Structure formats: C-alpha cells, structure tokens
Amino acid sequence: MCIVCKHESPQTKFDEAEARTTYYCKAYPDGIPEAVREAGHIYPKPGDHGIQFEASDGGGVPERWQQSQAEEDKTYNWYANYYAELDMTDEEFTAKMKREHGKNWHMYKKPSRDTFID
C-alpha cells in the first residue's frame, strides 16, 4: 500500500544486523511501524500525525485494500502485538504468556526474526 501512497518518502534504511528495511513517510517521519505496513493505513493509527493513505494518482483506495476499520484495526493489533513480542526479552515474553494463558503458557513460543517469513 505504501508504494502507491502520495505521502511515502523515497528514503529507506536497511539494517543489516536485523535484515530489515525501514520505510518513511509524512505520517511516520521516524519510520513506518511494521504493523502499519502489514495492516494498511486507511484509518487512523497511533502516531500517524493525522495522515492516512492517499493514492499518489489521486484515485481512491484500490478495491483489493478496502476493508472496514474494524478489520484493519484487528490486523494492526495482531501485528503490533507480534512485533512487540519480537522485541521482548525471554523473561518478558514468559511473564506475558503466563499472564495471558495461565497454566498453558508453555505452549507458546517466542517469535524470532530469524524464522519470520515476509
């Protein structure tokens, strides 16, 4: 979605250590959060400075990206949680799983950027 948005910046930064690229735009001048890139940005998101997707050609949102705000928010929240878990220490992740899943906490494995497939 970002590549056809009029707010996207041509600036990118590749982090070799983490093997990922950071993208920038007017809404996120310090880098577009991965959860926003995954979920889309038709509706407001935290920290977007009131700027959402606008097609660079002046058209509307392409049909394949149209979704309700509830659908977009659900996807965003899932990815935001996922990427937050990637940045947790093992201890933080274990504590979170114990809080959220009680006695079944051990069934959940901490995600890893090494095994994440785009």
Q: Mean pLDDT, nearest integer? A: 85
Continuous helix count: 3
Give the overall shape, derived from the CA principal axes: globular
Detail the poorly predicted runs: none
- Class by helix and strand content? alpha+beta
Secondary structure tally: strands? 2
Helix fraction, binned, reads 25-40%
Strand content: 5-15%
Instruction: State Rg.
Output: 16 Å
Ends distance: 15 Å
The string of secondary-structure elements, in order, is EEHHH
Report on the biggest sheet. Answer: 2 strands, antiparallel
Please state how the strands of the largest beta sheet are arranged side by side. 1-2
Describe the fold and architecture.
The mean pLDDT is 85. A hairpin with a 4-residue loop joins strand 1 (8-15) and strand 2. It contains three helices and two strands. It is α+β, with helices and mostly antiparallel strands. 31% of the residues lie in helices and 12% in strands.
Name the descriptors.
2 strands; 118 residues; alpha+beta
Break the fold down into its secondary structure elements and pairings.
Blueprint: E1 8-15, E2 20-25, H1 34-39, H2 69-86, H3 90-101
Antiparallel strand pairs: 1-2
Compact summary:
31% of the residues lie in helices and 12% in strands.
